[in-house]
Write a structure and sequence with these properties.
alpha/beta, Aspartate Aminotransferase, domain 2, 5-stranded mixed sheet, binds pyridoxal-5'-phosphate
Length: 459
């Protein structure tokens, strides 16, 4: 321990959080990682060590260069502007290092996880359910789909995934769905695209026909995946109709709620996921819309047994015969886990869920405001009215001009957007993760996008 050194690190953190330190700094500085490493002297620091003074210099440089998700001009990716308390909780977890693979390794982390899983379940409306925290939504999706396989093909653990197995998912699903299918032994031809409407949302009639076709061809559906909401567009699939069909055909329904399940906290937006309690499993990220540092996600099940069927392993070599919630690794892909619950616990305990609901409502309102502004401008096109905090818009330029415009925006340091393909076009994608973003940023953003579109000579 070196209290002076630790104090200096905390001072750096404090300075970083002080908005005046960031004033005038670019939102993001994107340079090739090898160049950054050279400029920061990372190679020497790693291979030879640079002592405390040298390390402090590198940390200061790291914070100086970092992408500023707290800056209201950050509108790029689905990461929360984390409450500082979330990070401080995480720091305490790292200091205690009571990782949670079994109850004994991290009794308090286990208690936090249990309570938080109950909180998630209660929000969905499940009283008999179960679940666990995972390092991210991709892992939550994989875990849920493994559970779907166990439920649909009880022999799969011994015999492998049968050749007639297929999965149904809309094409706009997050890539972790296709990757999970691959890890479960399904090729891309075994993941059938669910027909969607012109906004990429599941079309219930199309799903019905697909389920009939599957049965007629002797296929067995391992899972239907629905989005709440879709990554690129931020739109929600019609859950009540999908739930009804999955019940009718007796197939597992997984709702990927990584981004949008947090609407369950809001009286205003909960209607977007009405029916979610009819799913068999739900994945839900706290590090997207719940103010938590990455990562903190949950995989949740309507029925408790679903979680325990996933891995049909002889537990005697995993444990000494005990079972149940104190042995999360029986249900989890991971062995040792970080004490993930700390990140969300701190936000809920300090600020309360009403504050999170208010933050979410502000982000969603911001998306409506940006949509209105862009729509009023005849030189800009908006893909659709947003349902969440994601807005797709574009100046009237060829698809190939979108990326240069986006890069120039970032390099100018005045805004950071992502991009997405939708309906055969490339779009600028504003993901409004900061409740503080507002009209000031939107007005300068639209002006700068149009200026850049003209500069590339296409408007
Ligand atoms: C709908 C959806 N599902 C899953 C994921 C993956 O989540 P994570 O980045 O936590 O692995 C994302 C991430 O953007 C997403 O939008």
């Amino acid at each position: 321990m070196n209290p002076d050194f630790e104090q200096q690190i905390l001072r750096l953190a404090q300075e970083f959080l002080d908005p005046s330190t960031s004033a005038g700094k670019p939102v993001a500085q994107l340079q090739p990682p090898r160049a950054v490493s050279k400029q920061m002297g990372l190679h020497d620091a790693i291979h030879q060590g640079v002592g405390r003074e040298g390390t402090l210099r590198i940390l200061k440089d790291y914070l100086d260069r970092t992408t500023r998700v707290r800056d209201p001009r950050f509108m790029a990716h689905q990461v929360a502007v984390p409450y500082p308390e979330s990070a401080m909780g995480e720091m305490l977890h790292s200091l205690t290092n009571n990782g949670y693979g079994t109850y004994e390794m991290g009794p308090q982390a286990a208690a936090l996880e249990l309570e938080l899983v109950d909180w998630f379940l209660q929000k969905i409306g499940w009283t008999q359910g179960s679940g666990l925290l995972t390092h991210g939504g991709s892992l939550a999706n994989l875990t849920a789909l493994l559970s779907a396989r166990a439920a649909t093909f009880p022999q799969a653990w011994q015999d492998g995934t049968p050749s007639q197995a297929i999965m149904l998912a809309p094409e706009v699903s997050h890539y972790s769905v296709q990757r999970s299918a691959a890890m479960l032994g399904l090729g891309t031809k075994q993941v059938w695209s669910i027909p969607v409407n012109d906004r990429g949302m599941v079309c219930p009639d199309g799903l019905d026909r697909l389920l009939q076709t599957a049965a007629a061809q002797g296929k067995q559906v391992m899972a239907v995946v629905a989005n709440a909401c879709a990554t690129a567009t931020g739109l929600f699939d019609p859950l009540p109709e999908i739930v009804a069909l999955c019940k009718q055909y007796q197939v597992w329904l997984h709702v990927d709620g990584c981004h949008g399940a947090s609407v369950l906290l809001s009286d205003k937006h909960r209607h977007l996921v009405v029916g979610i309690d009819g799913a068999d499993s739900v994945s839900w990220d706290a590090h997207k819309l719940l103010g938590s540092s990455a990562l903190c996600a949950a995989v949740l099940y309507r029925e408790e047994v679903s979680a325990y069927r996933t891995f049909d392993q002889d537990e005697s070599y995993l444990s000494s015969g005990a079972a149940g919630e104190e042995l999360p690794f029986l249900r989890s892909v991971e062995c040792t886990k970080s004490g993930l619950g700390m990140r969300l616990f701190m936000v809920l305990a300090v600020h309360g869920e009403q504050k999170l609901a208010a933050d979410l409502e502000r982000m969603f309102q911001n998306a409506q405001d940006l949509y209105q502004l862009m729509q009023q401008n005849p030189e800009l096109e908006v893909a659709m009215q947003p349902q969440s905090n994601i807005v797709l818009f574009r100046p009237n330029v060829p698809n190939s001009a979108i990326e240069p415009i986006r890069r120039q925006l970032i390099d100018n340091g005045n805004a950071y957007l992502s991009a997405a393909d939708f309906d055969g076009k490339r779009w600028l994608r504003a993901c409004l993760m900061n409740p503080e973003t507002g009209m000031n940023q939107f007005t300068s953003l639209s002006m700068e996008v149009l200026r850049l579109a003209k500069a590339v000579g296409t408007v």
